[in-house]
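Lab channel / #folding
Pinned by the channel admin:
"Please post every new chain as: sequence first, then the structure tokens as a reply. Keep commentary short and put observations after the output so the thread stays searchable."

First post following the new format, from NK:
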Amino acid sequence: MTQTNIAFIGSGNMATSLISGLINKGQNPATIWASDPSEVCRSKTAALGVNVSEDNNEIAHNADVIVIAVKPQALKQVALPLKALLEGTNKVVISIAAGVDLTSLQAWLGDSIAIVRCMPNTPSLLGLGATGLYGNGNTTTAQKELASSILNAVGVSVWVNDEAALDAVTAVSGSGPAYYFLLMEAMQEVGIKMGLDAQTSKLLTLQTALGAAQMALDSDVEVDELRRRVTSPAGTTEQAVNTFEAGGLRELVEKAMNNCAKRARAMAKELGE
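Reply from TO:
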């Protein structure tokens, strides 16, 4: 891990997970700074051995990379005071706030600043996250690699070719965990209706989801082929799969994900300048 000075503005769960992941991958805690108005959050972060402060400008001044990890509604208030400090520097700012686009970020932070937008998802809290990233035209290859190394500390990351594709990232991975939770919830409920006790239904459902995901990750074939391999003609699985297909599952997933992306675009307007 490159020993770059990294500042985290906001020390909530996502920032703490990123900091822990970086330290676990070899980043020296002394090179990490974190700020938060909450004493509880600062104490929690300080326990990791990093530098903490209430002053965003102080930690930003010390850093090569500034990760803004605050709620989208608070981003403008946090970003505007940084503008003068950032002017004329080669610092890179990484925003993990959902729904705030580069147009707004550049207006608040400065047009000449390297800015990376990214969309991590909640499994990042377990080191199993999936993150999409996009950098503005000021972002160098080295800065992109640095951003990747930070987000890879909590899972995997991928770069998209245009900012609009981050809405698709939101629809696939950003909001995606909730889709799987919903399916697992439904399967658990039906298992109970079919006579299983609640704990058994839960265990079987969650372990099946985990196993299926691991098989898909480890396999050298696509998921459609994996599905075909476990779907015997005239068998029990085929009956269930055919029912899903006849019920319009694919069309419903498409509609849901399109609505998710549409909402992401609307949020950008609501949270922007």
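NK: The mean pLDDT is 95.
TO: also worth noting, The chain has 13 helices and eight strands.
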